[in-house]
Predict the structure of Universal stress protein.
Amino acid sequence: MPQTIAVGVDGSDESVRALRWAANQIREVGGIAHAIMVWHQPVQFGYRLPTPDTELEERASKALDTAVKAVEADFPDVDLRSRLIRGHVVDELVGLSKQADLLVVGNKGHGAFTGMLVGSVALKLVHHAACPVVVVR
């Protein structure tokens, strides 16, 4: 049965591995893999950082394109689509999990503390997603 898989991508090596895992799953069962990059304006101590939104969006778009192109090269027959969303990563991926058959993420991303086995985003998604979640190490 064809699947719709949502994959959280942040540009980290772990997220690219998650996207590869999802592409392989789609190759096996058919369907669509959606590479989802969620970006936001970072805040420190209650203040927005001075980086313009357009620059942050452009950086996120480039990171998403790089990740998708790296995987597309090895899976040319897989329907792999990318989507850039502004918002909070956990909220957005939980919302998308209501429309997906499977949610796939890396075990940690850019924000993970060294030595953690599972990052905070992956842990929250395991607990709150509306569909099954695969965490790729």
